[in-house]
Amino acid sequence: AILILKNLNIPVKAEYLYNFEPFSKILKMKEIQTPTHKTTLIDDTHNASLPAMINAIKAFDTQTEFFKGNKIIALGKINDLGHKSRDTHQELIPYLSNSNADYILCLDDDLRPVVNKIKNKHITYYPNKELMINDLKYLCNEDSVVLLKSSSGGTQFPEVAKTLPNILAKTKLEANFKDLFSTISNNGKSYIIVNNDTNEIEEQFNVENSMTIEGMGPLVYYMNAIDVQVPNEELQLKEWVTNNSNFFTGKTINVYELLTSMSKGPHPSESYELADYLFKNFANRKKYTNSIIANYNLSDSIATNLTGRFRVKERQSFTVSDLLSIYNDYKYDLFKFNNAFIIGLKYKSGFIRGFNKTIIFTSFNDINEAKNLLNDNGGN
Asked: Measured on CA atoms in the order 287, 353, 183, 41, is the torsion positive or negative?
């Protein structure tokens, strides 16, 4: 800028530079003291190009030997790549695959194909910054180091870098922390007990921290089946990647049998089949899912993948308050085929209706515990 002024024969006055500040030092390390430990952030979110992102990953690798805790790379997209965005981001695959990172967290749709192609790494795609920040606060353990890298615009990722230090400064980590997703599920265990007659909440537990590692995709498809008053047609199970001896290609089942079975805890092949039957294509399914997200003010993390099942590579989540919102509108239809609707394999979430009360819950290890809570509260 100064050279341009000089070339135009415009005097350069000292006051022009009075408030000038250069960008922060590239790859500047910032040590964060939490209530229980120390962690180090490398914030390089002021700008990004493919060479700059590759250089940041390489620079991160040179520093990891000096840290005993988790080595973490968190990325947002490279902005302004236009139609070349997908192919350009693919060039990060070998550098991330060979990096020293124990965990790789990726935001933005441009990076989702990268996540799916990287093998033998704990790498996860995040649909939004809030979920990424939540997981980072657990991963940033004693003497950990985190590279934060993205473009400065076109992505929410710089807000991760801006918010994370304040979150970490208040985060206490348990000394016995081991697995990210089991910790999230245990901390996200919650329930609400509702009176069937008055619809009033009679008891609740840990609602403010409610969280899951599963999505509610199967519940969304069930809601659509109710909305369109789907007929009880006979189906033959198509060939899905999750098929097994119980859910095999060509298995005959009618729609109501499928809905009844899904309400007890949907198998991924059942979710594939119902979604295929109801929507015919991805665009229709996405449109309906987005309408549910908008109508109930839900996070886009409720349905990151189609089946709702937990996968390390696709982070998703919902809360007990989300379930309550849906319950208020689908109070009777939820139990049309069963007195419960259960989501999740290892960790159970959903609804169980008793004679007097209904329990709405997230992230229970054992569904019987939810049933016992309901019975103890007069829900028989």
From this structure: positive
Cα separation, 345 vs 151, whole angstroms: 37
Q: Record the pTM.
A: 0.89
**73 touches 60 (CB < 8 A):** yes
Residue pair 260/283 in contact by the 8 Å Cβ criterion? no
Which tokens sit at 337?
Answer: 């085929």
The position carrying tokens 């302004």 is: 80
Q: What's the CA angle centered on 129, arms 54 and 29, to 5 degrees? A: 50
Q: Is the dihedral of CA 204, 207, 212, 218 positive or negative?
A: positive
**What local confidence, expressed as pLDDT, does residue 46 receive?**
79
Task: Kindly state the tokens that stand for 15.
Answer: 């006051």
- Per-residue pLDDT reduced to its tens digit, 304-315: 999 999 999 999
Please tell me the distance from the alpha carbon of residue 224 to that of residue 289, in angstroms, as a whole number: 9
Nearest to 45 by CA among 99, 108, 1: 108
Alpha carbon of residue 299 to chain centroid? 9
Mean pLDDT of all residues in 286-306? 96
**Rg of the chain's alpha carbons, rounded to an integer?**
24
> What are the start-end ranges of the E strands in the chain?
29-33, 38-44, 71-75, 103-107, 122-126, 144-149, 190-195, 201-205, 234-236, 252-254, 340-343, 348-353, 357-364
